[in-house]
Amino acid sequence: MTAEGAILLGDCLERIAEATAALGPFDLVYVDPPFAAGGTRSARLSGGLRSQGTAAYEDHFGGIDGFLDMMSPRLEAMYESLSAPGSLWIHLDYRAVHDVKVLCDRLFGRVRFEGEIIWSPGNGGRRKHGPSVTHQTILVYSRSKDFHYVADDPSLREPYASTSQSMHFRLVDEAGRRFRERVVGGKTYRYYADQGRKLGSVWSDLPSMRANTPLREETTGYPTQKPLGLLDRIVRLATPLGGAVLDPMCGSGTTIAAALLAGRRAIGIDQSDVAVATARRRWEKTVQSAALAPENGGANRVSHASGLAPDAGEEDARSAGRTMDRSGRGT
Known about the structure:
The strands form four sheets. An eight-stranded mixed sheet has the order 1-15-14-2-5-7-6-13, with helices on both faces. α2 packs parallel to α3 (97-108) and α6 runs parallel beside α7 (273-288). Mean pLDDT is 82; it is low at 289-327. The protein is globular and about 60 Å long. It has two domains: 5-158 and 198-319, Vaccinia Virus protein VP39 (Rossmann fold), CATH 3.40.50; 160-195, no CATH class. It has seven helices and 15 strands. By secondary structure, the protein is α/β, with parallel strands linked by helices.
């Protein structure tokens, strides 16, 4: 365990308290659990088809009730690990998101539901009967009314539509910047075209292909890996500089890489040896090189980090090949 964080091997239910004592309480807990989709997910560690690769985790729980039985105590542990301004971001899809929301409404209280992000990964099958499900959902819950949420970072804004820019931004200030003004309640508000607008709740600009093609350096071959830009955005929205981040089912370590690159501290936990080995290799590479800076405006801030080491006495997961039993997935 370093001052910047660690990657821990084990069930998050058994290790979150340890992580909280070492680095918490956490300003952000992001979790990308199994989707209860059934089957075994394999990693493409040395080329070839992922379906023929090393087993990374199991994604079957005997139905939705089994999945919720697994998630419930772990969500409680995540809740207890949060700081007062902290928030829990839960990444799911249509299979379990509604059921998990009911669990979280009971755990946090419905008043602490801050909203949801609709992420369009840019893939997914097209159904012949009924709507095609081509998005995933990230539920956001706050620990208290002091919820930390930053929306003014330049990387967390998006350009105005071209039609809006041509129709509305016709005024120019002394510096040559185009703007528009609106009067609301007797007060004048100025909006600059080059500043863009705050992000909405539908994110379609961060395709999953960024993290799942061998042509890109951030790709690890781990199943369900999320784009670094997606986690960079979440980290910057939900935490202050120097804040603490936890990913209790960290998979390939995307959350950890994004957090450290953005100047935060972070701990990742996973009970899959394949995941932990992948996350540790990735973090070592991130520390050694500035090449994996987030693409959506993120600055490279890894020079202060010494790396994420295994905890003392723990078997080096790099040499192991076990798959997790129930509750691993990861980013």
